[in-house]
Amino acid sequence: MGKVVLVTGVARQLGGRFVRRIQRDPDVDRVIAVDAVPPEHHLGGADFVQADIRHPAIARVLAEHNVDTVVHLDVTGTPLGSGGRTTLKETNVIGTMQLLGACQKSPLIKRLVVKSSTNVYGSAPRDPAVFTETMPPKSLPSGGFAKDTVEVEGYVRGFARRRPDVAVCVLRFANILGPSADSPLASYFSLPVLPTVLGYDPRLQFVHEDDVIEVLRIASHEPARGTLNSGTFNIAGDGVLLLSQCARRLGRPTVPLLMPAVAWVGSMVRTLGVTDFSPEQLRLLTHGRVVSTNQMRETLGYRARCTTAETFADFARGRGPGLLPPEAVAGAVDRLAALAVPAPGGGRTPTQSAN
Fold it and tell me: What is the Cα–Cα distance from 258 to 271, expressed in whole angstroms?
């Protein structure tokens, strides 16, 4: 018999894609897809079970289907449908607690994979230039999805201590982008005009949806020779982009505002339901965040197929043109740079735009 893999959060696009992908692996016998609501997309040959992981009934699902591998994708920052922040937090935290309790009672569970986020590091002015997996945040997240991920990882560490026989893999994904990305940051980049914090141009990292699916697949199997897929790993594409570069590549103008004004605009668009411009996202768009991916390459044995720049380019193609042509914006930046940078002989010399 091959593996029996249970996947949570399958009503979302990312969960559905992973379910369809993992079924093609020859050593997987069955896939049990779980969510509180039926998905609108197809799940291939997976067995769908409508169950809310916030309830103890999830333990019965594990037992009835003889599950030996659990891939927990139902930790997210975007509500599904009409669900609000309260429901989202309960699913992230209470749902994870119930799922871990069910896994602890099951003698068949051999592997647990948890989708986490680099949000656990927070965003603060005194942050290191690059976070490694062992670095604590300079300022713990005080709320929102970032705080949820901190709590979730705490419960996962407790489970790992109680069940040392289970291989536990926590994947801290950078901001996930791609043609079908559904996240607060993707919604922000879809605004016709991007509000930014005056005087700040944060560094950002992205990971492509395709890389997310492949890393999850690697983590859900036995490690390949010379690699180890138990532990905590930062997952991101190579390189970084400045927020100003992102805006230029989208062709969207920016409006630099003082911090209080940006917070007010964020509150307004959040009230209108345009995007979830939360305080944690405001901190990200002020101070940025960059993580090291050495462990992903050297220990997990995976190198992201798409760089941060390539990931953002694919995302931008799926969003359509902005108000300003990117080529015209880049040309204007080059001309301004040529006027601003003096040449060694006292004249002016053009500089290449970051775009």
Answer: 20
